[in-house]
Specification:
23 strands; mainly beta; 3 domains; Thrombin, subunit H; 260 residues; four-stranded antiparallel β-sheet; single chain
């Protein structure tokens, strides 16, 4: 099972659409001109662009293959056979786009974008991994497990576990601060602000556990915006205090984002 759908290129100049017949269409945003029309063996393929916009990964829920294509020509660069993977799901791109992650039930694999070579594996036996996030400098990843409510910090150079934070009931989101010195993790009574260098929780921004979804930092790292899934509110926090709340939104508010 491959679960991703990122139709826009990073610069916003192109987007993709997929159809049930397996065709994947590339469009120019400004003119809505069709740039490419690719026929794939994937029924309604999903797609995600690399951060540089030069590579696009495609797959679908029926074929256990992941295909990397040149985003300009549509040419296939390589195809990864994932038939032996346990429910593979696309995880995250490294910020530079040189690597990407695939998460399985209790394992995360890191691949080289250019060649498709497997670079690393991280295993948490018996724990279903729900989220994977690269740090902004590309040197670390954080994985979170639903069953044990624990987020784990891994060093990508050594492959070693560097730290962990537990008690994350219904963890839904992980967000590195822009400078990578703090991590906001939802679950277990609110937003946990974690200092990965010292493996310590700095503070807890209290919100009903089931009401927390995906936190986002401001570009300067001074504030956090938190959409609330059940109460349909968006809260903005300075560390240690709530600044303001947007109420009266439509039901099930799941996402929020800052302008650059």
């Amino acid at each position: 099972y491959m679960d991703f759908q990122t139709p826009w290129s990073p610069d916003g100049e192109r987007f993709t659409t997929a159809q049930m017949d397996g065709s994947l269409h590339f469009w120019e945003t400004s003119s809505v001109k069709e740039l490419l029309n690719l026929s794939t063996e994937e029924e309604e393929p999903g797609a995600t662009w690399s951060p540089a916009g030069d590579i696009i990964l495609t797959s679908n829920v029926y074929i256990n293959e992941l295909t990397a294509r040149d985003a300009a020509s549509g040419e296939i660069k390589y195809t990864l056979d994932m038939s032996d993977y346990a429910l593979p799901v696309f995880g995250d791109w490294s910020p530079s786009g040189d690597r990407f992650s695939i998460r399985e039930f209790d394992r995360v694999r890191i691949f080289d974008t250019a060649s498709g070579s497997l670079l690393q594996e991280f295993n948490v036996p018996g724990v279903r991994i729900s989220v994977v996030r690269f740090s902004h400098d590309g040197t670390q990843i954080i994985t979170s497990g639903r069953e044990d409510g624990t987020a784990r910090l891994w060093d990508l150079q050594t492959g070693e576990l560097q730290g962990a934070i537990g008690g994350l009931v219904q963890a839904q989101g992980i967000a590195w601060s822009p400078s990578d010195d703090l991590v906001a993790i939802s679950g277990g009574g609110g937003i946990h602000i974690w200092d990965p260098e010292f493996n310590a929780e700095k503070e807890l921004l209290p919100i009903l556990a089931a009401d927390v979804f995906l936190p986002e930092w401001t570009p300067d790292g001074k504030q956090i915006i938190v959409p609330s899934f059940i109460s349909s509110e968006i809260r903005v926090f300075n560390l240690s205090q709530a600044l303001y709340t947007f109420s009266g939104l439509s039901d099930f508010t799941g996402f929020a984002a800052w302008s650059p």
